[in-house]
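FW: tagging you since you asked about this chain on Friday. Here's the raw sequence from the shared folder, copied in full. Didn't touch anything.
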Amino acid sequence: MTESTKLTIRLHPADNVVVARSDILPGTEIPGESVSVRDHIPAGHKLITAPIAKGEAVRKYNQIIGFATEDLVPGRHAHLDTMELRAFERDPAPGTEARPTDYIPEPERASFMGYRRANGSVGTRNYLGVLSTVNCSATVARYVAEAISKEELDAFPNIDGVVPLVHATGCGMASTGEGYANLQRALWGHARHPNFAGILMIGLGCEVNQIDFLLEAYGIERGPRFQTFNIQGAGGTRRSVVKGADILRAMMPAANQAKRTQVPASELTLAVQCGGSDAYSGITANPALGAAADILVRNGGTVILSETPEIYGAEHLLTRRAVSAEVAGKLIERIHWWEDYAARHGGEMNNNPSPGNKAGGLTTILEKSLGAVAKGGTTNLCGVYRYGEPVEVKGLVVMDGPGYDPCALTGQVASGANLICFTTGRGSVYGCKPVPSLKLATNSAMYARMDEDMDIDCGAVIDEGVSVAVMGTRIFSLMLEAASGAPTKSEVLGFGDAEFVPWQIGAVM
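HL: got it, structure written out here
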């Protein structure tokens, strides 16, 4: 990235737009670009620097982000009224840019203080969870969690708390198909998550998503750390709350015995996410997070990139780094599935940028995706997984999921993520239990305004000249601290009890 002036940011010499660093008024001369501004260009928005004929490509990051809807001259504003999305061919070129990973020698690798579980997995937190199989048991699940008082928890200082994981589905749905499979993987992934020392699963009794079906499908066995019951069999609400609270109390002594020990950073599985994005996301926080992701992969860890609609248009940047044609093919298949899914519901992929994204300067899904994939870093694409599927390889992987942040992150956690890094430009206030979530601000103005919610200011990449690599190192250090128990801003604020959102697909009957 080079800067022609303090007013704009040029991301590549071949681009025909630059990004405004602050509001630019008509008549302003842009030194280094030989451009006189014709329109008001809000901060983060794009200024045209070369003639673009109607139908020609608008380029940013030296990639196509849209097409001109009319003949455009330098100085104009490139946004919703002057550019649009059109279909065009993108060569996936599977594996052509895959390179051997420069792993850090094992004796020199980073470490953190985590909870090593009996099955060998490693947690970054030590919670008890109450998991509802269906919305009909959600209230009881909440009541059970609330029945464990703060005073009771204070007697067990190694337990981080009790988390109710409740949702809005589980019945009125088909007992087969994509939606049912998504829900079961989300539930099972949380039930086995290493950040839980124990799980209580509560059903109603007559729902489609039966507890025994889930246990049979995934080979789950009840035991001291995993117990279940149905409200109807327990005798109703009050008796269920009493029974559930007693089960949790019986789990607490063993859960409290968990101790943090030094474990290698290879035990970290990082979910990378962006929400409330702006034009700076792809310039500061996302590439800086990508640099941190590269460090984690070089330490033997795992990075889960998701939100497939925010890969759309940039998928070729990932398929070219795929370790095999099979892995590349899985990603392309998911892209085609999303095109069909959107069409079936009368939508289009370019609907993905939200009003807030557009106000922040992002015009098309192509532009958003090119910035979003930077969160995954530059290492090889090692796997592609369905929503909530267990991730079984190290390195960078993609887990299919929607662009709705809580929904995608529910799947990433189910897939095994024990740490989250979440970039935001507009100011998302997301948090997640049972997994710590670090918030990365893309610009310093928002960070200053929302410093109680943001964990790190990546706006320093622009405002202070901090390199993306240095910022990535800072993020990685913060990741190790959070994984070792340092509370994130969202944890301090108490977020995480309402963010369990399994991805619903299919008819509600």
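FW: The first strand starts at residue 8 and ends at 9.
HL: agreed, and The first helix runs from residue 138 to 147.
FW: great, closing this out.
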